[in-house]
Amino acid sequence: MSDVVNQGAMMALLAISPLILVCLTVIVVMLSIAWKRNHTLSAILTAVGLNAALLALLFGWTLGTVDVTSVLVVDDLSRFGGVLVLMSTLACVTLAHHYLEGYEGPRDEFYLLLTSAAAGGLVLVSARHMTTLFFGIELLSMPLFGMLAYTFRDRGALESGIKYMVLSAAATAFLLFGMALLYAVTGTLDFAELGAALSTRGSDPWLLAGAGLLLVGLAFKLSIVPFHLWTPDVYQGGPGPATTFLATASKVAVFLVLLRLFQSTLAFHENWWHDLLGFIAVITMLVGNLLALTQNDLKRLLGYSSIAHFGYLLVALVVNQGLAVETVGIYLVTYVLTTLGAFGVVTLVSSPYVATGGTADASPLHHYRGLFWRRPYLTAVMTVSMLSLAGIPFTAGFIGKFYIIAVGVEAHRWWLVGSVVVGSAIGLYYYLRVMVTLFLHEPGMQRRDATHDWAERAGGMVVLGVATLVILLGLYPTPMINWVNWVAG
Amino acid sequence: MTTFHDVLLILTFVFPLLGSLILALSFGRLSERASATIGVASIGLAALCTLWVGIEFYDQGKSAQTLTLWHWVTVGDFRPTVGLMLDGLSLTLLGVITGVGFFIHLFAAWYMRGEDGVTRFFCHMNLFVFSMILLVLGDNLLLLYFGWEGVGLCSYLLIGYYYRTPANGWAAFKAFIITRTGDVFLAIGMFLLYDQLGSLNLQTLLARAPEIWSQGGLMPQLTALMLLGGAVGKSAQLPLHTWLADAMAGPTPVSALIHAATMVTAGVYLIARMNGIFLMAPDVLLLVGVVGALTLLVAGFAALAQTDIKRVLAYSTMSQIGYMFLALGVGAFDAAIFHLMIHAFFKALLFLSAGSVIICTHHEQDMRRLGGLWRKLPLTYAGFIVGGAALAALPLVTAGFYSKDAILVSALASGHGVLMLAGLFGALLTSIYTVRLILGTFHGKPKSDNARSAHAGKGLVHGTPLVVLIVMSTAVGAQLTPPLDEVLPPGPVAEGMAVHILEFTAMIVAVGGVLFAGWLFKRRRDLIRRGMADPRGARLWTFWHNAWGFDTLYDWLFVRPYQGVVRVNRGDWINSLCNILPWLARASHQGLRTTQTGLMRHYAVSMVLGATLLLVFLLVG
């Protein structure tokens, strides 16, 4: 009897060992900082811990679905999300190490924050209960406030951190209120039980209000229109590595929990609910792309572009049949890779940290003018990322977008498909503008450059590797498709 | 399970790709020598792989093999594969591309010495070979199309290689735009095929076509017509032929590789590959032959009146591809491919020899300023003599004789007497312009300082390609028989007296043409001079010099009406209509931008408003 219990406990421990390892990393790095401050050591310890967690995650794949407690479940989907979160975090660590070299203040704590946020992401992708959802989201967001305002002597970073914090708090209020309403009506916070309750009493106004408020809270994190206004400001001001994390790991984790929520409440989907979400998807795509149109600040532009991309992703969620889950998986993989490439270049060009005249990062587009003539490989990475974001064939982005369109076409959701097409057409304009800027001859304006040894830095290698992956997966997407199919199936 | 053989097949295009990538990623840091070495070696390795693949292919009984590498995307039924197919046809083309391609690359290492941007040159050349190999090895039309566009791009880049002269840029534009016109037709053809037959796989297409379509029906005719549109664009046949002569603006090895040996014959490959479709559309197939016959005559006359040696060769290329189209049109697919191969040998030889002349005479390529070179450039001269003899199809000793003869016999056997006569007449023209080219370049007195101070090309890099191609252009080359029996339907066969008479006539035409031209240009130049003095003669010369005025015609037919429409439509209401979209986008952008105030209180309010709207919708809806 006790053997069985022990075995179950062992399984559970094994299954959440990545989370435990990440938390351990936080503690180890903290102790190491207390003992002796050493920037490189902290970075290495963090990277080692995250790699160990990643390995544990991959080895745990044989365990199948493990119910760790009634609030956490470790299954293929959460492992998939975990891989994406940990990979992005690792990329951020390598980028941060280079970036923070020039920062005079304390540097090591950044890794603490980053790792804690990653732990939040891991909790979030395994959440199957409102408490873990809430816990995960907050654990993910709180360190992000600190990360965004990390270089607090810079006005932009401070503004970014404070804006995100205050607005996040407001969003959390919506989230909590939504949960409270749901609990008040159903008496449960478990996803599956909520789903059952919703399917039987779907028209209860309190339930609907609860679900709506919940959606508002999550939509804020994903910067879905009309809860998107914070995105460009926060992206622009935050330090490169922090923004990279915000754009990749944080969004992936939140989207996956939204997906899980949707999966558990399948029966709740009625037509008008679809229509509402479809409408939100359409305006998100259009507004995101339109806002980016004449944007002259690369980080803001990427912020707007991420709004649009989550609009595309919503299409899969709205359809929620056929290949929808595969589509979400594939799109997230391609999105994360591409975004890492784009933000990686931004961060490398801004590295090491130098506070100059209000902006610490090379954010304005004219800083990148003529980059090709100075840093050709870096420009190649940026070009590939832009092409992939625009969804040009032979980049990973095309595969993702192809799936989105295929899903929409299969479900005969012509409005959605049309919006994806229109959105992509608008998108092409500003992505190409960025590319053209890279190749223009420099007029001798103020500019920033990546250091000469950028390609020998870990961050540089990661960025190069990511760009290669974007191309490879565009040409030979089979491994990714198989992996995602396996996760979804 | 991929075997060693498969790996070799993959390596044939991986080596050129690698070479291209290395050169591209070097960003000009490589020395000229290193660039050339990488560029040539990659093709050399590809050629070795091809040789090995070919030997094994023969060992395994010449059966077609397919190798599916991966599925590009898998969405429902749409599963385009990245797959290779090796059969006699693709092997023949593969051999030409890597074999002839290797020698041209080798020669280019000599030709490009001291030029700016050698790295760029070899990068694009390698990329070209990669695309061309994909074009012929792809087992589906999507991959073929990928290669097709890839070679088009490389052609554009290489024609405009000397981009500092604006005219070269325009020539590159012209080539790109005109071939793109054809590509649109090809794309439509592909859409039709996918729509009608539900696949893009070559074997599936050929198998399904007879099951679904009826012989001579509307759909096969239309599809074949569209494919033909793509083929004439790429292969510079009427009416999309005007770009090839201008394409000579590129370096001469480019003309040899792309605009003589390989890319321009892609159209022939396409039609031969889709033979099943064309056989179901007999009218279109006949049209292929007619296009070929017309082109070979038009180009033959044009070649008579050129002064630039490369332009003579360009028109002769068009004319020779016309022969291939003629062969295709009478159903002699194997004869067309055979001529394609032989033509690659001797035309590459001629272009390389022309390149040798150009370098040795300090970039002089106008016949009016050359002459008297045969003593100074013996090897080059030999190249021109052998290549020219093969071009003129001198009987028995040259390779060109065997391949052209096969075409004429097929034309006779198929009963298309007019096409056959066109072919015979074209042969006469060929002999005359070839002799004119050789006499004008190598004989007589040197007509400029550049010609007088010519110095012979030295070294193995210069000599080897010429010698090898000289050998291949003789009857030795004709001993290579492409293994096409199982791939292509048998062509029309004729026997008996008529064939012998035809062969004999062809010999007489070729030899007679050479003798006549020799007599005319050597002994009776006064006849020509008198003809030119006559205004009618001069006008004819100008007419032919401008290749029957097609450029002017197109200028009148397309460019001017277009400009006229533009002028009429100066206010441009269509554009204004279209401009509504960008205007709309910009206006919405401006409108939306005002929401980005940067003020947190506004953001918070918008969240509350959004949430309220959402709730209202949920509760009311």
TrEMBL record, chain B:
Protein's UniProt keywords contain Plastid: no
Sequence intervals crossing the membrane: 6-27, 34-55, 89-111, 118-137, 143-163, 175-194, 254-272, 284-305, 336-360, 381-402, 414-439, 460-481, 501-521, 603-620
Gene: nuoL
Any GO MF annotation of the entry: NADH dehydrogenase activity
Keywords for the protein's UniProt record, in alphabetical order: Membrane, Transmembrane, Transmembrane helix
Domain NADH:quinone oxidoreductase/Mrp antiporter transmembrane: 139-430
Domain NADH-Ubiquinone oxidoreductase (complex I) chain 5 N-terminal: 72-122
Family matches, as InterPro entries: NADHpl_OxRdtase_5_subgr, ND/Mrp_TM, NU5C-like, Proton_antipo_N
Listed name of the protein: NADH-quinone oxidoreductase subunit L
Domain of life: Bacteria
One Pfam family named in its UniProt record: Proton_antipo_M
GO CC terms, sorted: endomembrane system; membrane
Organism: Salinicola corii
Gene Ontology biological process terms, A to Z: ATP synthesis coupled electron transport; electron transport coupled proton transport
Predominant subcellular localization, coarse grouping: membrane
UniProt membrane topology term: Multi-pass membrane protein
NCBIfam families cross-referenced by the UniProt entry: NDH_I_L (TIGR01974), PRK06590.1 (NF005141)
Annotated localization: Endomembrane system; Membrane
Taxonomic placement: Bacteria, Pseudomonadati, Pseudomonadota, Gammaproteobacteria, Oceanospirillales
